[in-house]
Amino acid sequence: MDKILILDFGSQTTQLIGRRIRDMGVYAEIIPGDASLTAELPPELKGIILSGSPESVYGQGAAPDRKVYDCGLPLLGICYGLQRMNYDNGGKVEALPKKEYGRITVTIEGEASCFRGRDPNGSGEDPVQQERLRRFLSGFSAKEAGNRDGSFTAWMSHGDTLTALAPGFRQFGVSETGYPAVLAHETKPWFGLQFHPEVTHTGKGNEILAAFVFGVCNCTAGWTMEQYVEEVRMSVAAKTGTNPVLLLISGGVDSTVAGALLLKTLNPDQVHLMYMDTGLMRKGETGTVKASLEKLGAKHLHIVYCEDEFLGALRGLDDPEAKRKVIGDLFIGIQEREVARLGLPETYFLAQGTLYTDLIESGKGVGKKAHLIKSHHNVGSPLVDAKRKQGKIIEPLDRLYKDEVRRLGRLLGVDEEVVRRHPFPGPGLAVRILGEVTKEKCDILREADAVYIEELKKRGLYDEIWQAFAVLLPLRSVGVAGDVRKYGWVLALRAITSADGMTADVYPFPSQDLIEISTLITNTVKDIGRVTYDISSKPPATIEWE
What we know:
By secondary structure, this protein is of the alpha/beta class. The protein has 15 helices and 18 strands. Helix content is 32%, strand content 24%. The strands form three sheets. The protein has a nine-stranded mixed β-sheet with strand order 2-1-3-4-9-8-7-5-6, sandwiched between helices. Strand 16 (484-497) and strand 17 form a beta hairpin.
């Protein structure tokens, strides 16, 4: 099976590169950017991609093993990866006077026919590299709507640029600000992009990556979700043996699919599912969870009612990170207490429905250069870290994105109603209540959110949206109910579209729907006095407010 290797230098979107390539049916493996490479690379490896990074090549940025430049395989440098290739081979990289960030137009300046690369074995043109370049540039050939000259919109996020090209490199694309955007080497199969083709904001991203994977690297599609499932099942079965496995389950898509995978991999008598009713759940959550898990064949479902403990631990806290840490520690603390009550042996394994987006936003990416965006309760707490060090953690979804998890759920026979359910954060309503969390606020938000989601389903909008939810703000506003002055809470509605959760755009609500939903919420939930709509994309905002 053909494979593409990705060197991870810490970019928050490195995993998206792998995701895009896997979606094309080609297996992609991600390793730390500075990992040592073997003298002889496996024959199935067809190309190497150098990812972006939050660092600078002249600062703390990691450098790849020099063997990468001698291996003879096609290389694609993305953002920092391009700067790394240029810098390591005699070029110059310097800080920009103004950072290039967000959507920026890129224009292709040349075609393969004008490429005058020299034959490394003699003089004249190098036909092999010229054909590679032609195939690579074919990914840029389709004209983007609104750009008659063939230019396209690219997503950039960098504060450095190439001020002198390394020997042998030529520029084939330029940004609207005048800096190099697309490069290729005259004789070596090296290509570079100063933007991120992996994010959905780049107009031709998939076509560009496909041009490299199939056109330059000559890969054959051969990787499927079925193969992934088989590999994970073999790995989980080998690791756990006959020991019990306890899955902390929230009832959302991730943990439910993780539960289905465990139940279809191991003996159901071996699998224990623990659900905690924290008081931070959506309306009717516990009943829905119980029914769906029993339908999947769960024999050991343990429901723990612990609302008072969670609300008590959160009392007086308003900092988002503090709330996440407290919730994470309490989750594990209660789990250990309840496990003791169950009488499971010390050899039990703890399973979680962690996705890779959780890991990389927590600074737990493949390499060591990822920056912390926010803590996740199931990857960031000290107790979970301790379990991880003991080798007692199983995370069968930790290399998947949300849309892949949904695909896996369908493959495993999980109910469509569960599979298509919008994401819900592990800390629950605690990170959707800004400021201190109280039972009163939970009840208000729970009711308002239920009205919102139900209306989206009635109006046929729910499946058009990646994630929708309500946020209770720490503000009260004066209003009027009938002829009576009303002093109610302010509610923010959030609805975004996304392919993977790493980037997101605001859902363009029909104005009448938004007005009617807002009115229904203020009329139905007496404590809500005003409703706003969040129009922030990701980046710069995150999807959740905390």
